[in-house]
Amino acid sequence: VASQCRLLQSSSGRPSAPQLPQLPDEPISLQDAPAGLFQLPPGDPFPERVTVAWLSVLALAFALVCDPQENLSLAEITLRRLAPRLLASLRLLGPGADVLLRPETADILLDRLLPHGQMLFLNERFLQAVDREM
Amino acid sequence: RLDGKFVELLQTVLCSPKCPEQIQVLCAAILREMSPCNDLILSCDEIQDTKLLSLVSSVLLAQENKKAEVSAVGQRIVKVLERRLPEGQSARYLLPVLSNVISLSPESLTEEQTNVVSKKMADWLRYASIQQGVAQPSGGFFSSPRTRQPGPVTEVDGAIATDFFTVLSVGQYYTQDQWLNVQAFSMLRNWLLCYGGKGLKTPNSDDKSGMDRSVMSMVSTTSTSSRLLPPKDRLREKAFEYCQRLIEQSNRRPLKKDDGDLQKACLIEAVTIMDIICKQDSSYVYRAVSFLKILHGRICGDATYARALVPIAQFFLNHSKMASVDSDAIYKHLFTDIPAQLFHNPSLAFEFVQFCKDNSQLFTETSSIFRQSFPNLFKFLAWNSPPLISEFVDLLPFLLDAGTAIEIFHLLLDLPCLTAALDIQLRSTALPTSEKAASDPAVKPATCLEAFRHPLCKTMFQYLLRTKSAPEDAPERLIPLRQLLGSVASNPRVMQCAETVPVLLELFFRVVAEFADGPLINQLVVLLLQRSDQLYEIPAFKDDVYRVLSSQLVMLCKLHPALIVELSKEILEFSGTVSNIQNKEAIFTHMVWAIGEYMSVSYDKRCTVEQINRFFETLEAMLFEITQLRPLASTPSYAPRAISVLMATLTKLAARSQDLIPRVSMFLSKMRTFVQSPAVTSVYCEEDLEEILIRATELMNLLKMPSVAQFVFTPPVGVASTRFQREVNDSLPFALRIVTRLLEPAPGFIPG
Question: InterPro entries annotated for this entry (chain A) (predicted)?
């Protein structure tokens, strides 16, 4: 994912991001966040052929690995919902992020938005209901 | 490996009733990470709490199914779903587990069990409440009657819903059955792929047996009392209606922008599920076809819905024959308009190319719209090179045949130009209309943008940006355009595209080698030599392309050695141009090697002594030119291997036309002077000069034994390939060294 992201960034002529960005106070907008899709052939590293949807936010990248017959539009939507919530609850971009000390936070989030790896067709209101439950 | 006692502890904590959720999640996560775990005593049989059951299942499903855990989980889930759940428990946590189970091992459920679930799913999809839920206070019981009655659910645009509940229904709070509706739809595709066809299927297999059931099913779908239908058929009916409703709902303008994204995802899912249903029961085809044609008409002009056009096209590809429907307009729009307008959308580009790969047999028909549109397809690659290069490596062989080879050859070499042109096209359309006035034909364009609208350059751009194959058009007209685009050559996207070209070129030749006949090979060689002058000016790009072209040139000569004789005019011209030694050294060197190797009567009876002599003279003049010692002017340096290969080829030709031997010998003897002259030693490095001298000496020695030379250099064709014939660089030195040693035996050397 890292190389895809770098290549996409460089192709659009954007300057490469600074090493340690300041965490902005406003919610990070994902509108222009670089994102993409690519395929991995069987055997490397997954036994079957998979498609990877990825999203990059500042210095971080998120990847969602899908089976060939899964809905890629939904995968992109799911990523765009997971990323800000993970960023916020784990404070991933802040200094001294203690991500490794709080694995259950990520797990609970994933369990709600991607239970057992199942992508969900949630409209905005449903999403609010999910957020309320957490 | 974790201590057994610790594992036991984890399991106990996980299942203890008062444990906070976070701890439970953590325990489950640790146990999953340690899978497969032999000390696991967890079982899902006794667990009543659905949330806990979900967590425990996640651990069990991670165990690599050594003890049929998958089946056990599946059985338990179905059992729980069958019965009425206790108060406060929700089935919604179990559906994702079920989806996982059937993906891992569809055989875990019996037909009876799948019928039970199918029946429930049909109900969840079709009969969820259309009243909004109430807020659940933390106590878990309903609050006082002062709470307002919840209203009906609405559509995404705010209108009150008048039809059944779907994932696109909006409310402030949701009921349990509405949750189940969402979950059921989210796993519907997987479920239908697994169990919707005749008998048990794995998610990846196609079901073509739906045809057989058409007679029977045509009766059942018109039945008013659908409860009489077998569960599978009933689910199909409800699922079909659900998809129809979703498609209608996607027509509404959402109040929240993000709901628009979901609408599109739902649309794609709905069309795909309809496609699956029609494959499993062809009686649905007639209903679906008319519906989807209307949908296509509605969205084909809207760029934001472009991704949905792909599954629609797939549907028609699968079913239009059965419905005797003409869907050519759909394919035409998809392949002509979409790539030209939306090449810059990376997700669409990816899915479009996948679609092409999935339907690769379409490209084999010469006259089809799919085949004709390949120039359009390459726009996706030109713009989105890194993610799509591996996809195009898979796709290219299907686009290539004798009819398209030449055009694709040119296209590949001009791929970075295409990127540049697309960039200019995008920038041009983004300009405000005031700046878009057509430029004055008399004035030469100053920038690329101006050139884009300039009348003289327009046709060049149009050719490059064409949507259809145009084999008769001459690509030479692009020469001025390539120069014009020079200013964009350092654009990062252009450079990324340039990196994909060598890979594709190698693949191109590998595929072409399988079917090309003599005339096509000749054509390719001529074009190869021509195009070496007409490449887009990106430095690393040119070197890489030369490298590939030169090795492929050799390959073509191997396939069709007679081309040296048949194309002698073009080859003489190329190898007689001194500047080629500098500018296109790789191609030159390999060309000269090929001449030495294949210019022989054993490869082509038409090879005459005159021809050999003519080639000899040309190459001799070249070698003379580059080894000339100019006392006053500075000595330009040429690639040492060019010198070596020229010497070797001249020797080989002399071996076949033995009158030439004295000339070569004399020339070779002069190499010592060349190598030792101060002007030369200052420009070439010592090892190279030494190599040249050694090579010259070996060749001279070989010529002292003309019959041996003749054998070495002109073995009969058809003889099993000996070592002397195999490698360009290896065999000749080997042969020469043997011969040299025979002539000047070193002490202690035993010939053998």
Answer: AP-5_subunit_s1
